[in-house]
């Protein structure tokens, strides 16, 4: 969800997967892009919960995204354009890494600490 709102891959500046894993476990989350709609921002934070049982399931996620979508579909053209202009102005600046190719990997990490939720002021 963060990648959709920012147009960037999260934690792009980290070179080593171990650093990313440990920081996420310790509650670090990407900084939410200014101008991200509040409903989307709140849903993204729910999905980031360290406790998987507190994260929305796929049906809840789908329903909430549908509501956000319908809200913007039913918005007047003038208000929608104003909202989109605001979001566009606040996008994360594109950097050299946007052209890098990323692939999924499976990592096995042992003896990891218990995951924590992000705290205010601690984000990347």
From TrEMBL:
Molecular functions (GO terms): protein kinase activity
Origin: domain of life: Eukaryota
Chain ranges of the Serine-threonine/tyrosine-protein kinase catalytic domain: 1-64
Protein name: Serine-threonine/tyrosine-protein kinase catalytic domain-containing protein
Biological source species: Rhizophagus irregularis (strain DAOM 197198w)
Lineage: Eukaryota, Fungi, Fungi incertae sedis, Mucoromycota, Glomeromycotina
């Amino acid at each position: 969800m963060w990648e959709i709102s920012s147009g960037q891959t999260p934690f792009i500046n980290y070179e080593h997967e171990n650093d990313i894993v440990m920081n996420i476990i310790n509650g670090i989350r990407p900084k939410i892009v200014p101008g991200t709609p509040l409903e989307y921002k709140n849903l993204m934070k729910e999905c980031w919960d360290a406790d998987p049982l507190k994260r929305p399931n796929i049906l809840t996620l789908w329903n909430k995204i549908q509501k956000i979508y319908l809200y913007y579909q039913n918005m007047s053209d003038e208000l929608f354009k104003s909202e989109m202009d605001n979001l566009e102005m606040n996008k994360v600046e594109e950097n050299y890494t946007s052209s890098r190719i990323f692939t999924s990997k499976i990592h096995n990490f042992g003896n990891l600490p218990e995951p924590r939720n992000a705290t205010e002021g601690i984000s990347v």
